[in-house]
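Hi R.,

Here's the chain you asked about this morning:
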Amino acid sequence: MYGSKRKTDYMKRRMIAIVVTLFVMMNAEAQVIVKVRPITPVVIKPVCPSAHHVWIGGSWRWNKRQKNYVWANGYWARPRKHGAIWREGHWRAARGGWLYVPGHSVKIVWIPRHTVVGVLFLT
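And here is the predicted structure, written out as tokens:
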């Protein structure tokens, strides 16, 4: 009896691992390296709708049919997470060219005023 329960638990864990792996693979964005990064267009922001909105900057998206990056305009939105800021997307040098890193929310971490973060000794 103990052996069959152990086998059942093993099968459940294995099935969960397979489902999680498939979910991650389906939601992963392709990372395409280009030799020359595109020039970011000049953007004029429309008027902010309220003091509660933040600007989500435009971003580059890979177009599979055209086999190149296309620009998607930015927009105003209410922050999804309290205490977070929007980090703009940017190009990062990669082996063989450039890789686009999409924009995303970054949680703000507050450090108390009197906390010593590091000490620098000059000799």
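One quick note: The mean pLDDT is 79.

Cheers,
M.
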